[in-house]
Design a protein that fits this description.
By secondary structure, the chain is α/β, with parallel strands linked by helices. About 35% of the residues lie in helices and about 20% in strands. Strands 9, 10, 11, 12, 13, 16, 17, 18 and 20 form a 9-stranded mixed β-sheet that branches. Strands 1, 2, 3, 4, 7 and 8 form a 6-stranded mixed β-sheet that branches. The protein is elongated and about 80 Å long. The chain starts with 8 loop residues before the first helix and ends with a helix. About 5% of the residues have low confidence. InterPro entries: Leucine_aapep/pepB, Macro_dom-like, Peptidase_M17_C, Peptidase_M17_leu_NH2_pept, Peptidase_M17_N. Belongs to the peptidase M17 family. Its EC number is 3.4.11.1, 3.4.11.5, 3.4.13.23. It is an enzyme of class 3 (hydrolase).
Length: about 500
């Protein structure tokens, strides 16, 4: 089926809605306004206060009998000015700021949560067009609204799909911030669309077509390589994983030129479009979620699209090795030895530790670009989920400055990171073998995410600043309790944080 079926469907539908609304007179319109809340009291934002005074104190009269809570909404019907309903949302304390213990900006996160709550409450009553104020931070408001309304419903009949309302800013003052928020959130939604698609309709070939379709229209150059190319590049580690499936592998090389002469930043995303575990077969429970094992690669696509739309003055190269990991007569067997493109021999003791095998060759290949930094994103280990749950992504790096930048980006986006150790003791667990250079699982004494990072380090070009982000815990799908503006599905995390990170560097 055509790749376009899966790419930015909600965005396309919203654009169609925008074009058609101008000629439709019976559109159901809703409005989201804010109120700062603290200790059971509230104070309307300036825009909400103005609306209230222009409409005979309709908000005040209704809120007097309602207990407005942080991050929740109260719907008032027929409030005036042609709106069918207005959702007043609790923004938390007006003085909220960076929370040192929580490691993010409370005010921005409160606004994202409130914007999503207001918009989804209006979505539930079938509002067609939602107008939303800045809520004191236009970027956070745009992000919360766009992320909160997203639904993956590609395989439902049209009449059974949830309506995705058109979102329009109300009395907007900070146009650039709103624009940036929309770009970042739509990039994350693109990642969610890709990661949530079923594996039979998101094969390596289809993924490559989706990436090409999305990126070339914003000026990103996309090269799609096949198995013969991988053989010429001596990517024996990557090839060994792909050979277990009948679906042909693909390797994407994507270039964004921001018009500068600086060294490029290389982003690498793990692209296993379905991971059964291979011969080391996974349990059947929740194996369907392994269609999202290409979330790292999807993040790279979303990030590249966003930075192109933001026109950041940097150079970025995206690399995504794409394949399936399946059991067959041609699949890797425990104990097999393969050779990566840097010449190192790898013993494969567990075929379910395949992500690091395909990333190994991508890391080696990244060295050809003389990169300033190499950053890889991968749903790599269940161990990072044990360590951090679905709250934070695990970060490993050999460069303190990279860590400080990514941590700061997480403070802004609310999508937090946590640094984990990358020390020699973990390297010894993967490279201290008498008969082979590296083992893909090592001497297992716990710390599986640390050992996996140590394995990847063996393939990082010499003297290169590198950061590995293990997103297995945060990519989805069970996020509702952790992130209220992301519904229970693939999350697209940490797309916005990497975009923010690159904005800071630029």
């Amino acid at each position: 089926m055509a790749a376009s079926r899966f790419v930015s469907r909600n965005v396309m539908l919203m654009n169609l809605i925008r074009r058609s609304y101008s000629s439709v007179s019976n559109v159901k319109k809703g409005l989201v306004l804010g109120a700062f809340t603290k200790g059971g009291c509230y104070r309307l934002t300036p825009i909400a206060d103005y609306f209230d005074r222009e409409n005979q104190s309709v908000l005040t009269k209704n809120l007097e009998v309602a207990n407005l809570k942080d991050g929740k909404s109260r719907i008032i019907y027929k409030p005036g000015l042609g709106y069918n309903a207005v959702a007043v949302v609790g923004l938390g304390p007006e003085e909220a700021c960076f929370n040192h213990s929580e490691r993010f900006d409370d005010k921005k996160e409160n606004i994202r949560i409130a914007a999503a709550a207001g918009c989804t409450s209006l979505q539930e009553i079938d509002i067609d067009e939602i107008h939303i104020e800045e809520l004191s931070d236009a970027e956070a408001s745009a992000e919360g609204a766009t992320l909160g309304l997203w639904r993956y419903q590609e395989w439902k009949k049209l009449e059974k799909r949830k309506k995705i309302p058109c979102v329009i800013p109300y009395k907007l003052q900070n146009k650039l911030d709103w624009h940036n928020g929309i770009i970042k959130a739509e990039a994350q939604n693109l990642v969610r669309n890709l990661a949530e698609a079923p594996a039979n309709y998101m094969t390596p070939s289809i993924f490559a077509q989706c990436a090409q379709q999305e990126l070339e229209k914003v000026g990103v150059q996309v090269c799609i390589y096949d198995e013969e190319w991988a053989i010429r590049e001596k990517m024996g580690s990557f090839l060994s994983v792909a050979k277990g499936s009948n679906e042909p592998l693909r390797f994407l090389e994507m270039k964004y030129d921001g018009g500068t002469d600086c060294q490029p930043i290389v982003l690498i995303g793990k692209g296993v479009t379905f991971d059964s575990g291979g011969i080391s077969l996974k349990p059947s429970a929740k194996m369907d979620e392994m269609r999202g094992d290409m979330a790292g690669a999807a993040c790279v696509i979303g990030i590249l699209k966003a930075i192109a739309e933001l026109k950041l003055p940097i150079n970025v190269i995206g690399l995504t090795p794409l394949c399936e990991n399946l059991p067959s007569g041609k699949a890797n067997k425990p104990g097999d030895i393969v050779q990566a493109s840097n010449g190192k021999y790898i013993q494969i003791d567990n075929t379910d530790a395949e992500g690091r095998l395909i990333l190994a060759d991508a890391l080696c290949y990244a060295g050809k670009f003389d990169p300033k930094y190499i950053i890889d994103l991968a749903t790599l280990t269940g161990a990072v989920r044990v360590a951090l749950g679905n709250v934070m992504a695990g970060v490993f790096t050999n460069d303190d400055q990279l860590w400080e930048n990514i941590e700061c980006a997480g403070h802004v986006t609310g999508d937090r990171m946590w640094r984990l150790p990358l020390v020699k003791e973990y390297s010894k667990r993967v490279n201290s073998y008498p008969g082979v250079d590296v083992n893909n699982v090592g001497k297992c004494l716990g710390a599986g995410s640390c050992t996996a990072a140590a394995f990847l380090k063996e393939f990082v070009p010499e003297n290169c600043s590198w950061m590995h982000i293990d997103i297995a815990g945060v990519a989805g799908p069970e996020q509702q309790l952790t992130v209220p503006y992301l519904n229970k599905s693939s999350t697209g995390r940490p797309t916005r944080t990497l975009i923010q990170f690159l904005r800071q560097i630029a």
